[in-house]
Amino acid sequence: MAAAEQSVDGVDRRALTQYLTVLEDQGRVRDCPGQYLVVSQSGSEYLIDARLEACECPDHEFRDRECKHLKRVAYATGQREIPPIVDRGDVDDQLGEHCSGTPRWSR
Known about the structure:
Domain SWIM-type: 46-78
GO molecular function: zinc ion binding
Organism: Natronolimnobius baerhuensis
Radius of gyration: 13 Å
Protein name: SWIM-type domain-containing protein
Region (Disordered): 84-107
Structural class: alpha+beta
C-alpha cells in the first residue's frame, strides 16, 4: 500500500468524522451519474462531480485543493479506502448511508 494511503491529514479527518451526508440521485443530481450532493450539519449543500473531481464549495474553488466534500464522497462510495490508522470509532456512523457505494477499510 502506498504511503499516501497510510497517512491522514486534517481534511481527511474532517471528511471522515464530521456530520456530512452524501446524497446521490436526488434533487439537483437526479439522473446525473458521478454527481453527488453533500449536506453539512449546518444545512449547507454542495454539488460534487466525482468524475471531474470538482466541488462548488469555496475551499475547493478558491484554494484549488481537494476539499472535505470531495474526500467524503470518495470515502462514502468506496472509491477511496479508509486508512488503517483511522479509529473506526471516530468515523461518522452515517458514512455511506445514503449512497449506493460501500465504504472500504484498508487492511
